[in-house]
Structures are given as structure tokens and as C-alpha cells.
Fold this sequence. Notes:
The protein has 308 residues and is an alpha+beta fold.
Amino acid sequence: xxSDDFARPGRPRSLQxxxxxxxxxxxxxxxxxxxxxxxxxxxxxSEQGRLQLRGGERDGVSHxxxxxxxxxxxxxxxxxxxxxxxxAAELVVHPSxxxxxxxxxxxxxxxxxxxxxxxxxxxxGHSAARHLAQVLxxxxxxxxRQMRRPLAGLDLPDPVLPEGVxxxxxxxxxxxxAWLAVNAAAFAHxxxxxxxxxxxxxxxxxxxxxxxxxxxxxxxDGRLVGFHWTKVHAAERLGEVYxxxxxxxxxxxxxxxxxxxxxxxxxxxxxxxxAMLYVDADNKAAVSVxxxxxxxxxxxxxxxxxET
Length: 308
């Protein structure tokens, strides 16, 4: 779909929406994202959003491509899969084309496509993103912190597992269903993480960074009760507490802290100098646990939404 509202004399601007992108379009979007990340110092679209660029059509996901003179200058992704919350979006404008209203054009198109029920991520919380949110009439409602700590000289107490709990590593294929079930239970309050499907898991297992030896599962009587999935960002030499979860009926016994320690020791043994993680700022208990483990806030992602 093309909107003439975004055309300018002499330099036609077009905006098209797709349910799925072709290989050439995907390549162009990834190149735009890479250029923006180089300038901004972080990705404008999350890992989940980048995975959803590939592999064909996905329920509830649409892609908005904004072009000037047939050159891609902006991209937005809209995901309408949450049964309760408004659709969520991410958007980016090529650094060479900023300051010309392209971000506002993408934001206005997202508002129209979502029926003016919209949530938008601003990764890094840059001032330009805050200004765009204000222009679009969005208000801040979520703060996601990236926290980091050094791994050199890691000095953490030995993990003490609850009685009857053992830890092993993930076996692809065999453990998929059990992990998805515990992940859904552990993150029932978290629509993005708790709603992961087999396709989402398969997407991640197909990535070059996936390593089952860094994916730890806690079991009691043969039943999965918790996990710590670590990730290595090889280019940045950065380890990540990628996903850490404990089944609701196993919480409160120190399992989460023990799994965190096991994962951090694994990352340190890989020779990585730094570990990172993401946590919601309003999750005071989790923030406190991570601060006691030596993590400090490195940067902040902000989510804005329309008034409800």
C-alpha cells in the first residue's frame, strides 16, 4: 500500500506495507539496520524483530518500507499478536536521511495501521526518539535496562542448588517442548518472552551464536523447573544472561541465583571480559538481585504507547 500523503515535489516518497519481505527487500532492510547500528551504537530493531524479517509470513507481523526515489530510507515493523496489549512496533530511519520527517511518516503510518492503539520501542532512549514520541502523542510507560558487570576475576559463591535439583545442558529436539512450557509459565506476565513458540525457538537454534553447552536446565525428579540460557556476542566479546527463568512452583528457593552463577561462570570460562542482561526497571526484586551480583545499568530502552 502506497500513501500519497508522504510524497514531496521532486523527490517522491512512498510507503508500502508487506506481510512478508522478499530476499532483496530483506537484504536492503538488514543493510539499513547495520548502517544505523554503526552510527547509533545499538540496534534499532530487536533480535526478535530481526528474526521476523526472514522466513516468510508470520501471523500478526507486518513490515513498512519507506523509500525516496526508490531508495529504502526507513523501516518499521508492527507486531499485533498480544491478545490484550496494543500492537508493538519498532522503526528506524537511515542516518543519512534523518531530519526530513521520515520518522514521523513511519510513526503516523503505524498509528493508522494499529487503529491508534500502539506501543513503540526506542532502543537506547535517544533524544530524537523521545521527541518523535512526543510529536506522535505517545507517553512513556516501560523502561528496560541493560545491565553489565565485568567477568574478569569473577568471585561468586559456589551455587547451592535446592534439594533434589540437578543441572545439565539443553539437548536440541529432546528438550524443546519442556523448555517452551516452563518458559511460558515462568514468563506468563511477560508477553514477549512468555509467548515464544516452537518456530521462535527454531529460529534461535539456527543462529550462529546458538550453543547448547551454554543452555543450562535445572531438573527435579526428571521435571524441568528452571533454566539459564546464555548467549555469546562474539564480535563484541560480550556474554549475555539471555533468558533466565524458574517455574512458579520452584521460585523462592534460590534456584534463580544459583542458575545465574552457573551461567556467569560458564561465560567467564569462555574468556569473555563482560556480561550483560536485560531487566525491566520496575522489577525491583530482579534489579536488586542483579545489583548484588555486581551488575550496573549500562543503557536503557524505552517503550512509549498511546493513551488508553
